[in-house]
Design a protein that fits this description.
The protein is an alpha+beta fold and 281 residues long. It is built from 8 helices and 9 strands. Strands 1, 2, 3, 4, 5, 6, 7, 8 and 9 form a 9-stranded antiparallel sheet that branches.
């Protein structure tokens, strides 16, 4: 069972790995107490421990669910801490598959979540209507910043969701979701700055390593503080949803926690910046 496997994993860790040796310093976040998006109740004020408990509860009783708890050292010779959790329930003909994951800072910055994801692969006879999914998403998260390319994007600056100029309703979001993103709205979001597109930042965050060091440069250069992305991939028929992907990135927390962790010696500053290599031609 999932819980028994988790207890066995955690039992092998030294007691010191479950708590920070030093008093943590809270990192800055893109989100406020009044506007803090969550995925299954897990937001970026969650710790590795609370996120793990929430994800475990979600898949409780699923005998084929698996847990992957990834640990990292606090400094070169420090104690272990949980840096990432991944829970998977494989899709089957009559079972919707689910992937739940979270990535966390070191105990120096509170072991806080900065990247949270949930992917659902619906069983063929369980695919929800796209209109119903959009209604649920907007009911939970509010009016999105921009819709298109199969996504609803919520882009946060200064503690609130910014607008691209379109006041989306459920019907207009449904009409826009499978069309290309409006290039005029995308340009408006970036303004006259040369900072990175937040749409591009969240897309790349989904595919790259989820460590602070791997995400730091783009998070620092992003033209936003945080992003929530909801992708609805069409099923069969096309008005149904085959796959739903929810991704939450707190770019401001990535930058703040990197500084805190480096100052505390939680990471090696010389290794905190990603280094490029020659591309394959």
């Amino acid at each position: 069972m999932l819980r028994r496997a988790l207890l066995c994993i955690l039992a092998t860790l030294p007691a010191a790995s479950l708590a920070a040796d030093t008093k943590p310093k809270p990192p800055e976040s893109a989100f406020t107490a009044k506007l803090r998006p969550d995925i299954l109740g897990v937001s970026t004020d969650a710790t590795a421990e609370s996120a793990r408990a929430a994800f475990e509860a979600r898949l409780k009783g699923q005998s084929d669910a698996k847990a992957d708890i990834q640990q990292q050292k606090l400094g070169d010779a420090g104690t272990d801490f949980v840096a990432a959790v991944n829970f998977t329930l494989p899709p089957k003909p009559k079972q919707t598959g689910e992937l739940l994951s979270g990535s966390f800072t070191s105990p120096a910055s509170g072991n806080r979540a900065y990247f949270i994801a949930r992917n659902l692969t619906f069983a063929p006879d369980q695919q929800p209507a796209k209109a119903d999914m959009i209604k649920e998403v907007m009911g939970k998260y509010g009016v999105p910043t921009i819709v298109g390319d199969q996504h609803l994007y919520y882009i946060y600056r200064a503690g609130s969701v910014i607008s691209s100029g379109t006041k989306y309703k459920e019907t207009t979001a449904l009409d826009a979701i499978d069309k290309p993103l409006d290039p005029r709205a995308a340009v408006k979001l970036n303004g006259e700055t040369v900072r990175g597109s937040c749409v591009a930042v969240i897309k790349r965050a989904q595919t790259k390593a989820k460590t602070l060091s791997a995400m730091f440069e783009e998070a620092k250069g992003a033209n936003c503080d945080g992003v929530l992305s909801v992708q609805l991939i069409p099923g069969t028929p096309a008005d149904r949803v085959g796959i739903a992907q929810f991704t939450l990135l707190d770019a401001k927390l990535v930058v703040s926690a990197t500084a805190i962790d480096n100052a505390a010696g939680a990471t090696d500053p010389s290794k905190s910046m990603p280094k490029g290599s020659a591309p394959k031609l």
